[in-house]
Each structure stands twice: as C-alpha cells, then as structure tokens.
Amino acid sequence: MKSLVKSKPEQGIWLEEVKAPTVGHNDVLIKVRKAAICGTDIHIYNWDEWAQNTIPVPMTVGHEFMGEIVELGSEVKGLSIGDRVSAEGHITCGHCRNCRAGKRHLCRNTVGIGVSRAGAFADYISVPAINIYKLPDAVTDDLGAILDPFGNAVHTALTYDLVGEDVLITGAGPIGAMAAAVAAHVGARNIVITDVNDYRLGLAKTMGATRTVNVAKENLRDVMSELGMTEGFDVGLEMSGVPSAFQSMLDTMNHGGHVALLGILPKGAGIDWDKVIFKGLQVQGIYGRRMFETWYKMGALLQSGLNLKPIITHHVTADEFQKGFDVMRSGQSGKVVIDWAA
Ligand code: NAD
Ligand code: ZN
C-alpha cells in the first residue's frame, strides 16, 4: 500500500510502498479517506532533536485521520464494516492504575500512532477497536480528520469553567484558534488571543476570538486597558510553547486565576514561579484528550453548531504531500487536509 514514511534519519518524508498492516483480534482495519498534518508531523519532517530521540526509522507517520472500517478483528463488538470513523491516537495499556481507574489519558504507558507505531498517512491503518470513534452525521469527513487537534483544544478549554470569564489564549496555531471557537461557543466574555503571526491571528478572529494581539507590535496590557479589564484574566490557555508567551500569561492573570498548559515548553524554560505562588494560580498540565469524554464533547459541540470549518485552509492529495508540508512549515495555514483516497 501507499504510505508516507520517515524512512531516513534526515529532513524530509517519503511516499513509498509498504506492507499493509495486520489486524489483531481486538483491532479494526480502516481504509483512510482523509488525514491532516499536525505540528508533530512537522517536527518529524524537520528531524529536530525531539524527533531524533523519539521516532523509530522507518515508520509510517500521521495520526490525524478518518476513514471507513473494512475489516474487524474476531473479538470486536459494536462496530461494523463500512462505519465512518476516526480514532484516538493514544493507545493506552489498559492495566496501569490510571487505566484501571478510567483515567486513560493519564496512562503512563501510552503509545502514539504515527509517533511510536505505524501511522495514518497510508491506505490502511490498524488500530485497537477501543480507540475508535464513530463519526456522527454532523461531523463531515474533513472535520473527522482533525478531531485529534480539536480534542486538544476541547480538553484544554473545558478544563475550567469559561462561562462569562475573560480568557487569554497564547498561541493562535490551529489548536489555539480552535480553543477560541470553543470558548466563544460556551459563552466566555473576552477571548483575547496572542501570536506573532498575523495570518494566524486573522484565522483565530474568524474562529471566535474577540480580540487578537500581535505581541510583536502591540502590548497586551494596553489591550486589557482598552477592554476595561482592570484586574486580569480569569482563565489562561497556553498554546504556543513559547516561554515569553507563558510568562506574559502569568503576568496578566488575575489572582486565583486558572491556567491550562498545552504548549510544550523547551527544557529549562525560565518561569517566574513567584507569579504562580503569590497570585495563588491553579496550573494544570494537559496531555492529549480525555478518553473518551473529550470525544463525546467534540461530537456534541459540533452537533450544537460550533463551526470548525474555517480552520481547514488547504487540501492536497497524497501525491501532493510535499505542497502540504511546505505550507504547514510556512506558518501561513490553518489545518492542511490530505485527501488520501482522492
Ligand atoms: P503551532 O506551532 O502551530 O502554534 C503555536 C503558535 O504560537 C504559532 O502560531 C506561533 O506563531 C505562536 N507564537 C510564537 N511566538 C509566540 C509568542 N511570543 N506569543 C504568542 N504566540 C506565539 O502549534 P499547534 O499545533 O497549534 O499546537 C499548540 C501547542 O501545543 C504546540 O506547542 C504543540 O507542541 C502543543 N501540543 C501539545 C499537545 C499535548 O498533548 N500537550 C498536543 C498537541 C500539541
Ligand atoms: Zn495504562
């Protein structure tokens, strides 16, 4: 089958013929119809230090996808051939303390599709049936392909009560922009989003941010005065992974504020912990999606009218993958969907 493979330990990714995956008793085989390029795939493409330390070579990449079930393992129940599905990309062990307590998102033995085992940029992918999410009719094929990052946004944004609150989102990448959409949908008051990229800030505005701030040109405190925010933000969603952005969040949070950290900060990021302590902030690290509560919430948010469509800015076919990676790497895009079966 056709597959996008990290086949050499150097920059790039290559379209190659590989063997189709086998299907275990508890697995399903999915014919991939749409996939999307994640920031993680860009790290793998660039072959940065994280990728060099993490990614086995050769390996099929990709973990944001949807498709159709074409084969069921002998023990699989509740799913049928032909089901339109996406899948949770974190495969958990099922036997650690957290898994047994129903907190699978905290499994210490998590294995990632397209990171530690064969991924979704391929004609077929095999995944454990428990990871499958059946797509409601309200979720189009395109949106089905981006539920993984939407889930990051939903998990982070719904960690705290946003109703009527003033929310700061640092980082208007695809996930930050989608978090703005969630915050708007559930009734936050001011939704201020920062970035240094005007294209992405424009996208975040379309998605629901009430005020965008290019921190290279504008001062966040001036914006707060303009909005009449005398005390500070109630909720902070860190979605840039940039230390100065996180620091500006700590600086502008109200006392007793709530901060959720999704962005992956570089090792040794200097953080002014005094702000956390003396403001009595609550800080929560976020990893992946809640299994499978976040998936139910995503379906419900889309069914209740949250419009995610504008975040998909580009489509490419599998043969045009290089074009897709190039536009993602340029920063001048939202989500790039690969019409794999086209
Ligand atoms: P992204 O890299 O596309 O977006 C980050 C954005 O931050 C970019 O638009 C960039 O221009 C912006 N930025 C740069 N400097 C900034 C500054 N000083 N202030 C504000 N913004 C600034 O990433 P994404 O795919 O949207 O993901 C967001 C973050 O979440 C990334 O750090 C990613 O690694 C991380 N992530 C974490 C998890 C998890 O499970 N914890 C899952 C997915 C992604
Ligand atoms: Zn586990």
What profile does the largest beta sheet have?
A: 7 strands, mixed
Poorly predicted ranges: none
Mean pLDDT figure: 97
User: Percentage of helical residues?
Assistant: 25-40%
- The total strand number stands at 18
Order of helices and strands: EEEHHEEEEHEEEHHEHEHEHEHEHEHEHE
The number of distinct helices, counting runs of at least 4 residues, comes to 12
Termini separation comes to 15 Å
Distinct small molecules bound, one entry per kind = nicotinamide-adenine-dinucleotide, zinc ion
**Radius of gyration, taken over Cα atoms and rounded to an integer in Å:** 20 Å
Query: What fraction strand?
Result: 25-35%
Structural class: alpha/beta
- Mass-distribution shape: globular
Binding site for NAD(+): 175, 195, 200, 262-264, 286-287
Site (Important for catalytic activity for the proton relay mechanism but does not participate directly in the coordination of zinc atom): 148
GO cellular component, one term: cytoplasm
Active site: 40, 43
Give an account of the 3D structure.
The protein is an alpha/beta fold and about 350 residues long. It contains twelve helices and 18 strands. It has helices spanning about 40-45, 50-55, 95-100, 140-145, 145-155, 175-185, 200-205, 220-225, 245-250, 275-280, 295-305, 320-330, and strands at about 1-5, 15, 25-35, 60, 65-70, 85, 90, 110, 125-130, 130-135, 165-170, 190-195, 210-215, 235-240, 255-260, 280-285, 310-315, 335-340. The strands form four sheets. Strands 3, 5, 6, 9, 10, 17 and 18 form a seven-stranded mixed beta sheet that branches. A six-stranded parallel beta sheet has the order 13-12-11-14-15-16, sandwiched between helices. Strand 17 (about 310-315), helix 12 and strand 18 form a beta-alpha-beta unit. Helix 5 (about 145-155) packs across helix 6 (about 175-185) and helix 5 (about 145-155) packs across helix 11. The two termini are about 15 Å apart. The protein binds nicotinamide-adenine-dinucleotide and zinc ion (ZN). Nicotinamide-adenine-dinucleotide binds next to helix 6, strand 12 and helix 9. Zinc ion (ZN) binds near residues 92, 96, 99 and 109. Belongs to the zinc-containing alcohol dehydrogenase family.
